[in-house]
Amino acid sequence: MTPSEMSEIFNEVLKFVGGVAAIGAASSAFAYALFRMFTTKWIETRFSERLEAFKHQQNQEIEHLRFRINTMMDRNVKLHQREFDVLPETWSLLTDAFFTIEPISIGFQQYPDLNRMSEEHLDDFLDKSPLTSLQKTDLKASSDKIEMYSRIKLGYDLNKAIDVYNNFHATLSKNGIFIVDTLKVQFAEIDQMLKDVIIERQVTLHSQGQFQPTKSDKRLTLHSHGRLLLKALEQNVQARLWSSQDTGNE
């Protein structure tokens, strides 16, 4: 009971005592009964008011807590759904980039012997190629048609690989915030390996040099270590997508 409430009771009691004095001793028992009834009623009223105030406050706190829980659950569900949409798309673009860039990086390209082809077969072959008219004319006049064709074709393949890589890289950069850190680190590691291989291949193409395998070659690293990383990432992505119980961050 607060000091103000005690003061209020005290004042009411004083008023009541004054009334008792006026009634006289003969009616003191009746007055005492009235006093008890009055104080009991007053205390019950005050208790009811305090109880209702307490219930109201508790209900407000419960509603506030329920709102916070619902908000958090709704956010987690939305984030998990977004991740569920992003992961398959990012994985698909990564595999497209990897298996487009890897054969180009290791130089695994086979072409027919253009130097021994008849003119008609050569024309038919070049009609199906991506070479321009000027490039076709230059190639026909070349003494080493296979070397010239492989170099020109590599340029086209490399441009395609760059486009495929950029598509994957842009998607990863845009949607990386929806991917858990453990997976994003793996995506980023392979992303960097693909970028390094493209740069290495561009340098070789522009210098018209020949590949001389070394232990530090980016292409060899991609072919060996990169495949292991890709396989590990595949397993982790699959586990993440099929884990229906996990809706939070790892």
Brief synopsis:
With 250 residues, this protein is mainly alpha-helical.
Describe this protein's structure.
It is built from seven helices and no strands. The protein folds into two domains: 3-66; 79-242, no CATH class. With 250 residues, the chain is mainly alpha-helical. The protein has helices at residues 3-23, 28-105, 119-127, 133-141, 145-175, 181-207, 218-242.
Write out key terms for the chains shown.
250 residues; mainly alpha; 2 domains; 7 helices
Order of helices and strands: HHHHHHH
DSSP strand tally: 0
Biggest β-sheet strands, sense, barrel = none
As a whole number of angstroms, the C-alpha radius of gyration is 42 Å
Number of helices: 7
User: Shape, please?
Assistant: rod-shaped
Q: What is the helical fraction, as a range of percent?
A: over 70%
Distance between the termini: 51 Å
Number of folding domains?
A: 2
Poorly predicted runs are: 209-216
Helix/strand/pairing class, anyone? mainly alpha
**What percent strand?**
under 5%
The average pLDDT score comes to 78
Draw up the topology in text.
Elements: H1 3-23, H2 28-105, H3 119-127, H4 133-141, H5 145-175, H6 181-207, H7 218-242
Helix pairs in contact: 1-2, 2-5, 2-6, 2-7, 4-5, 5-6, 6-7
